[in-house]
Amino acid sequence: MLLRLIPNQNHSVILLTYCVSFKAQKRFICIYPAYLNNKKTIAEGRRIPIDKAVENPTSTEIQDVCAAVGFNVLLEKNKMYPREWNRDVQYRGRVRIQLKQDDGNPCLPQFPTRKSVMLYAAETIPKLKTRTQKMGGSDQNLQQGEGGKKGKGKKKK
To answer: Which residue has the higher pLDDT, 16 or 60?
Structure first.
């Protein structure tokens, strides 16, 4: 039994449980956040070039991006990448995506391979609202801190 997350208009998530036949489940590919993480080496599990990778992606971000483009997406929150040594909640999760139909043709013609899906997700995750809001807030804090610094005066003898 797998969980399917469906975002609605109120930006909350509806959980649906359903059984997927073995034949249909074979068509689903797995994407772990480590595949897209620029903090990881290839030996640690990164599967795309480092210049196209994202800093610490989460499984929910990957799920959001893939669901928005039209994939059938399943999010498994408690699964972990076997090479991941850190057991924190931030690093948990696996996204299953239906890449091909029962006849073997791609579900979406612009994404024929799993690598094309990973590259698209890595390209789109930095544009998410949650990512851009975090970046904007940290820039303001840096600018406010820079103006208050004063140099030391000369020491009197």
So the answer is: 60
